[in-house]
Design goal:
The chain is α/β, with parallel strands linked by helices. About 45% of the residues lie in helices and about 15% in strands. The protein has eleven helices and eight strands. Bound molecules: nicotinamide-adenine-dinucleotide. Nicotinamide-adenine-dinucleotide binds next to helix 5.
């Protein structure tokens, strides 16, 4: 099989990531079926397809004909069986729960054509924990899009030991067809590439603060004005949520036993106080004042 054999794509889960991944595939010429068990989410995804495409036409990014063709290529159904019956490539984007993903992959293995590649968009669950729920582990891999999937260019394609070169090559080529920038991870590693790099930067920024080397404002300034980051670590943590930093750190520690993942004392303190960042009005910075 090669990239030209991929014509039909199924996206499982129409939440934050799934509805945008499905739209992306349809815009780039793939016949796409998107499914979700929640009818409200599915309806929302369908409405999004209409408003998003209309917006692209308004902004001059797509012609009316291109938008109409993309809309005709995307369908929504509550039946996973229906969604995957003709699929050449399946992208799963359901909740980050291992047992749920294993169940879905076992079902996909029964329902999708034998040649279909089964990709998971999981941020943290490596595909070798899922692949053995199927009889086609060489076709099961992580293809990790970033949020929002219609905008962010990077996709991490992770080749665990069970993944064939053909599966990886087709997946990388598909990302390029979708005008993304795929990177190839030759090994499965917790956090993949970018989240690991961010974790290291976050650890270092917190250490510099906690050791009294510089203020958080100056550490943020160093990242913005010296490294060209759109925002520094502390602003970013406030945006994504200090609760998330805490939970992900604890989870990574539980998973790997590596103490470097443990949340630092100042993160634990903010987490216990409920100062999660922008959503609670206070985190590293104070958002209650103008
Ligand atoms: N949100 C992010 O920033 C982000 C970024 C990259 C990767 N991811 C990964 O993408 C995946 C999805 O994340 P999300 O943020 O889109 O979650 P979400 O909660 O927004 O969407 C998940 C969807 O899956 C649906 N679902 C649950 N069980 C299902 C089933 N059996 N069949 C069909 N649909 C089912 C839910 O109804 C829900 O709509 C996760 O694995 C996550 O780790 C998320």
């Amino acid at each position: 099989m090669n990239i030209d054999d991929i014509k039909n794509i199924a996206v499982i889960g129409a939440g934050n990531m799934g509805h945008q991944i499905a739209m992306l595939c349809a815009i780039h010429g793939y016949k796409t079926v998107c499914t979700d068990i929640n009818p409200d989410i599915l309806k929302k995804a369908e409405n999004f397809a209409d408003t998003y495409l209309a917006g692209r036409v308004e902004k001059g990014r797509l012609t009316q004909d291109q938008a109409t063709a993309a809309r005709e290529r995307i369908a929504f159904t509550g039946s996973m069986e229906e969604a995957v019956k003709d699929a050449d490539y399946v992208i799963e984007a359901v909740l980050e729960i291992l047992d749920l993903k294993r169940k879905i992959f076992a079902d996909l293995d029964r329902m999708a054509p034998a040649h279909a590649i089964l990709a998971t968009n999981s941020s943290a669950i490596i595909s070798s924990k899922i692949a053995d729920a199927t009889d086609r582990s060489e076709k099961v891999l992580n293809v990790h899009f970033f949020n929002p999937a219609l905008v962010m260019k990077l996709v991490e394609v992770v080749q665990g030991p069970h993944v064939s070169d053909e599966t990886r090559e087709i997946s990388m080529a598909l990302c390029e067809k979708l005008e993304k920038v795929p990177v190839h991870l030759k090994k499965e590693v917790d956090g993949f590439l970018l989240n690991r790099i961010f974790a290291a930067i976050t650890r270092e920024a917190l250490w510099l603060l906690e050791m009294g080397v510089a203020s958080m404002e100056d550490i943020d300034k160093a990242q913005v004005y010296g490294a060209g980051h759109p925002m520094g670590t502390f602003r970013l943590m406030d945006l994504t949520g200090i609760d998330l930093t805490y939970i992900m750190g604890m989870e990574a520690f539980r998973e790997t036993g590596d103490v470097r993942h443990l949340p630092s004392p100042s993160v634990v303190e903010k987490y216990c106080k409920g100062d999660y960042g922008q959503k609670t009005g206070k985190g590293w910075y104070d958002y209650t004042k103008k």
